[in-house]
Design goal:
This protein is α/β, with parallel strands linked by helices. It has helices at residues 18-32, 48-55, 81-86, 97-102, 107-119, 132-136, 140-155, 180-197, 217-221, 238-250; strands at residues 7-11, 38-43, 60-64, 91-94, 123-128, 163-166, 206-209, 228-231. It has a single domain (7-250), classed as TIM Barrel, CATH 3.20.20. The chain binds 2-phosphoglycolic acid.
Amino acid sequence: MTEKKKLIAGNWKMNGSLQANAALLQGLRDGIGQPACNVAVAVPAPYLAQVQALVAGSAIALAAQDVSQHEAGAFTGESSAAMLRDFGTRYVLVGHSERRQYHGESDAVVAAKAKQALAAGITPIVCVGETLEQREAGQTEAVVKRQLAAVIQANGHCISEIVVAYEPVWAIGTGRTATPEQAQAVHAVLRAQLAAATAQAGRIALLYGGSMNAANAAQLLAQPDIDGGLVGGASLKAADFLQIIAAAQSNQA
Ligand code: PGA
């Protein structure tokens, strides 16, 4: 795991405006320099063009928050992977718990979205995670393995090209973070599952997400199987996001 760069990805969710985005990215550009880790921001689709221009020539990569499971056609409201690619999108979130929960995305749909992204040369950040009820019922491992298995099955040898984000649903936006030990335990399960599917499992970045912030990032990122973070709320403040990036760099071998 020593040679792999960590990845810190901000998930802006449905936040931002032309003005706020410009200010946030200016703050990030002013402070980021040439980081030793990879950095991305996942922005709302209407702002892809704006943010593509604002991150040009910087160390910040562009990410989208969702992609259609279809290639093209009569799917009103959807954005295809090729469209995201047109704006220089490097990563796309698939299967975020808010998509699974509020938009009824099944494991099969998430797997199809990952496939569309890979076909367009975009790295899917596949989100998995259990609800509080599932954790309390002792189902954490079974749930995340089921969610990841669908993506592995649909994507064959391309699976080494994905990024996985473990985001316990009970930790998202709640201020309740998984402990480094809880997160590491699940990451180890995911790593083993990937290792059974590909000889390249060691190079797949496994991110943790769920109330990661400037205060807790360093400890989480020090875990052997935590290769980065998917950061929601704390990615909306330049100073906080820069501190998380700094924590990733100091954990970089
Ligand atoms: P949070 O969100 O950092 O605000 O908990 C993380 C996410 O949903 O990706």
